[in-house]
User: Fold these one by one.
Assistant:
Number 1:
Amino acid sequence: MHARQRMALARKVVDVFGGRVSCTLGIDVDGGDDEVERWFLAATLFGARISARIVGQAFHELDRAGLVRVDQARHLLWADLVRLLDQGGYVRYDFRTATRLLDLSERVHERYGGRVSAIAREADTYPALHAALDALPGWGPVTAGIFLRELRGVWDGADPPLDEHALAAAHHLRLLTDTDPPLTQITGLAHAAGLDPRDLEGGLVQLALRHAAHMGGCPGGPACAAINQGQ
């Protein structure tokens, strides 16, 4: 493919599959520590095997109730958290997640003075930051990855490798063309296409997740069925 074709395809990925999850939730992580706090709370909800739609609903229920920082959860009763999660449709994991939120809020309060931004001040490299997040109650590599990939350029240590799903989708669409590292290529392609690299990565992740069962039989590239049919 020519460069113009790759740029057009990159824009189509974002048009069809969306970009940053935080943006779809109405969170602007570039807007300061308070918005990062909201994204941290939302990312915590992705720790269970549950759809992004239900995570969004549950997050908005917590948000409407005034829970905008995970540190605030320690002031709520466990039953109140369960009720809010249930109202958002987060029923299957409501008990477990309410317990996780309480444990997490206590850890963030005791270890980081209640502010998530303190994690970034203590850990300003990717390995240190990933390890600090991975050690939090209810968190793990997947949650840390979701959280950090949308904080590229916001936190100094938020420089994870290109998400493995995004990498698979980029290969499937034949967006990678040379020997530079995949993240470098995706970043350059996004800038050339007038996109935020985080949006392109997020769109590629969603393409891979939704198209996984059919990717093997799909021609890929500009002829990708997922892109053209909006699957």
Number 2:
Amino acid sequence: MTTVGLIGLGAMGSGMAASLRRAGHSVQVFDVRREVAEAFTHAGGMAHDTLASLGAACDVVVSVVVNAAQTEAVLFGDGSTSGCAASMKPGSVFVMCSTVDPNWSVALESRLEAMGLRYVDAPISGGAAKAASAQMTMMTAGKPEAYAVAEPFLNAMAAKVYKLGDSAGAGSKVKIINQLLAGVHIAAAAEAMALGLREGVDPVALYEVITNSAGNSWMFENRMAHVLAADYTPLSAVDIFVKDLGIVLDMARASKFPLPLSSTAHQMFMQASTAGFAKEDDSAVIKIFPGIELPKGKA
């Protein structure tokens, strides 16, 4: 039997691990928070103390960490701990679900192939709720032999698994374009709600009208609900879009392609981050607007 391991039991990873388990797979996990990994195994599965032991035990390793630097540490260690790559069996598959520079993902495929390992470039989208219900989207690229091993697990975690190329990079490029839209839409939604507040419009009425009108977007409907509830618990933090829109701009800069809306949105998230809202929900970008009184939520 092919065994699957998952690294990173955060908002997305915990739901993905639960989806794998629901599909009948025995899931082995690692998280730097040992207590989180142990809690997951109460309903079955196994928690590993080290990345190396998880790598040795699994034929497919799914990594759900924040960025390229954390993925590097997961694979190759960080100086104080070993990663999983050195202990993975030849022919095993590493599935990378982070939002990263596509060129980095292309290079990673080559590095892993040199170690006898297979790779699927597989960024994800949909949020924690969709991850928990196996309804999220995966934007994937990889060689056929990597898919042959990993595909049952991809299908267990996502409602839509898009195959975008037979080598790494295409998945990450599409995810970056998705993040361009997501970041711009959140920034635009915050700007619209802020203007409504400035003009004295009832924010609940504004939300109701916009979500039933042509100006609506998924991000307005989802994120402005957080603003109305005054709940800035970070499901996706401000600094995520500082990072992701930064990657968007880096990718475009390399080909001298102008992105005026992305540049403005990036500056808005940068302003929110430096104003002290870095770890708050990304809807907290609305806090950069002056002269408005934000909703206080339910008493």
